[in-house]
Design goal:
By secondary structure, the chain is α+β, with helices and mostly antiparallel strands. The protein is built from 2 helices and 3 strands. The protein has one domain (17-77). The chain starts with 16 loop residues before the first helix and ends with a helix. The mean pLDDT is 84.
C-alpha cells in the first residue's frame, strides 16, 4: 500500500461513457478494481501546509476496508475542462 501525496496525475478526457469504455476505462473487479462507497466528505478549511482548504473523501468497500483521498483546489485546477 502506498501512502502519501501524489506528485503527478494522469488525466484522460472522454466525450461520453462509450468513449471512456473504448479507451479502456472499465472498472471491473476482474481487472483489480474494488467498488467503494463515499461514507463522508470532510471539509478542512486550512487543510494544506499553506493554509488552503481540502476535501477529504472517506470511503468504505464491501469488506469494511476504509480509504481516504484528499482533494485540493490546486488538484482540481490541474484537470483541463
Amino acid at each position: 500500500m502506498r501512502i502519501g501525496f501524489t506528485k503527478h496525475l494522469t488525466v484522460t478526457i472522454c466525450e461520453d461513457s462509450e468513449d471512456a469504455f473504448a479507451k479502456g476505462h472499465t472498472y471491473e473487479a476482474e481487472k483489480g478494481f474494488r467498488a467503494v462507497t463515499i461514507e463522508s466528505a470532510v471539509v478542512v478549511v486550512h487543510g494544506t501546509g499553506q493554509g488552503n482548504p481540502t476535501v477529504d473523501l472517506v470511503m468504505v468497500d464491501a469488506e469494511g476496508n476504509k480509504y481516504v483521498t484528499m482533494i485540493t483546489g490546486n488538484l482540481l485546477r490541474t484537470i483541463p475542462v
